[in-house]
Fold this sequence. Notes:
This protein is of the alpha/beta class. Helix content is 41%, strand content 13%. It is built from eleven helices and eight strands. The protein has an eight-stranded parallel sheet. The two termini are 13 Å apart.
Amino acid sequence: MRIDAHHHLWDLxxxxxxxxxxxxxxxxxGDPAPIQRDFLIQEFCxxxxxxxxxxxxxxxxxxxxxxAEAEWVQSVADAHPHWPMKQVVFCDLTAADLSAxxxxxxxxxxxxxxxxxxxxxxxxxxxxxxxxxxxxxxxxRGLQMAGDRGVSFDLQLIPxxxxxxxxxxxxxxxxxxxxxxxxxxxxRSPEGLRQWADxxxxxxxxxxxxxKLSGFGMFxxxxxTESIRPIVEVCLDQFGPDRxxxxxxxxxxxxxxxxxxxxxxxxxxxxxxxxxAVLGDTAAAFYGFSDL
Length: 292
């Protein structure tokens, strides 16, 4: 079963997404104007099914109200029972009422994980201050609580933040962690990739961390199969195929590639013997598709 382990959906009439309403503002991944419209499951599945995928993982995407977004995604999943879908929600792990928040999310059958972004890109991080989560004891406790409940954590950050984050994660060994976008190697120069690979080793050394091969276009809009080869090869070498999974990051990455091209590139870079794991089995095991 092929599973797209990282994508988004949104209905601008059903849920409020501040960044999708902010016209004329360039983001770290580029100009969002072409995707500031509804992106519904019918459009996503058209591309995913054509590429042989049979299920997916929806990742939270900056809604004003994380629970409202999660409830809407649940309604989408309920309305499309023939498309298996899990979801990773936004939850503030530093919240004083974290237990109650997790209760509400876990009441939704599709919810299997949470994401609270630690780092997006140097410029935006300087404004948001999310890097400070690594120094917040309540964040560390929240990670542990999530793991105790069987809830995974989707980790988004940049290489400069990996060393300290790895130390935080080492104190939550029972929390299963999915590293988004291969750790966002934003500097694609030879030296930048070397520094990213060195930093990545601190995370790949933790047995509870898996890696998503996703988000390649966000920092290199003109990416090619050859330009992402070093990233894919390092991830496969450090994590192994049983700890790597494919994610399209659509519709964000649709700004720079169509779905078929993206899948073809990843498939050409992943050895044939590893494709079953990377394109499905790793995600199925990590996100619990066996219970569907």
